[in-house]
Design brief:
single chain, 154 residues, mainly alpha, 2 domains, 77% helix
Length: 154
Amino acid sequence: MDYNIYLLSIQDKIKQEDSLNLKLKFEQLQNKEEVVSNLALIQLQNTATPIIASIISACLGLGFLALDRFMIKDYALGLLRLVLSLFPCILFLILGANYEKENADLSEIFFAFFAIFLICGIIWWGVYLFLVYKKIKKENYNKIIDYILKYQKI
């Protein structure tokens, strides 16, 4: 398989400038055909799958679950997003509902905090859609580069 055909087949899974860097790397290799045929066996992540899952979960009101981060195995940021967007919303919603009959002013403050954290969570979700897309492309590129570097050492 020609490396140009391989680059065309993965153009949606890596950035365009990374594609140019890979082309330069391939041109420097001695056994291009062998490397490219083995590269075809590397499993690259699809950029659309986590984004679609995240959008579907957001439409169901579950965008705070950070499915996109868990799908790309970024567990630390997924848990952080889950804790920082879900926990305050539930806490302030419960506190607002508990103080509704006793102290209306305090209840309104808690509901305002609930709304603020909910809006921040929605904004965070929207920003992460773009960041997850870029991170997947970067990880795919790094997988290819790692393989090429290991091949050159052999």
